[in-house]
Amino acid sequence: MSSLITLASGLAPLESWAPLAARKARMCDVARLLSLINGYAAKGIMLPRTEFEMSENIRDFTVVTGGPELVACGALHFYSPTAAEVRSVAVREGMKGRGVGKLLVEALDAEACEFGLESIFAFTYVPGFFHKLGYVEVDRGELPLKAWKDCLRCPKFQCCDETAMVKKLQSVQF
Ligand SMILES: CC(C)(COP(=O)(O)OP(=O)(O)OC[C@H]1O[C@@H](n2cnc3c(N)ncnc32)[C@H](O)[C@@H]1OP(=O)(O)O)[C@@H](O)C(=O)NCCC(=O)NCCS
After folding, report:
1. Host H or E run for residue 137
2. Which of 12, 19, 108, 124 is the most exposed place for a label (fewest CB within 10 A)?
3. Quick one: pLDDT at residue 170?
4. 125 pocket-lining for ligand 1 (C-beta < 6 Å)
């Protein structure tokens, strides 16, 4: 699965119009994925990931690339035969606000549909972004308990300010 858009970029390697494409991540992406995610984790807006976790879950990840550059990532993590979480969504600084996040999450939505899921959900500090992509706010009690396991290692466990959001899917039924 691959989605294509063409965007202007202010970043040096992409100073001209560069085609951006969403594709599944590969092991060669692990170092750059860690750099992107842990950069935001250091600012307290994402959970940090280790090389082991990233390697173990690499099949969850989709990346957006522009030429040789990795500009965004996100993951689809399955919890049940009908539901998955969209997580670890990050767009590189300098590339925000250009539709890259939308391209990425739409690729994850499409992947979820291919797997026949009924819904996808996210815990997020940016509900406005997910709202634009068709997600609606729900009580977190409506989401699978297992999805809370990451919360146990979150520094904000006792004072969580993330919003739970869900999107119903129109998946193909086989
Ligand atoms: C949140 C994030 C993924 C958005 O990516 P992006 O590439 O900047 O978003 P896009 O340009 O694709 O925006 C798509 C739509 O969402 C809107 N949007 C983007 N960020 C938003 C925000 N923080 N609040 C409200 N709306 C937002 C855009 O205005 C756009 O709306 P439009 O289609 O009407 O023009 C990006 O800012 C990011 O990586 N942030 C840091 C990490 C993070 O917070 N990740 C989320 C973890 S759940």
Report:
1. strand 136-137
2. 12
3. 82
4. yes
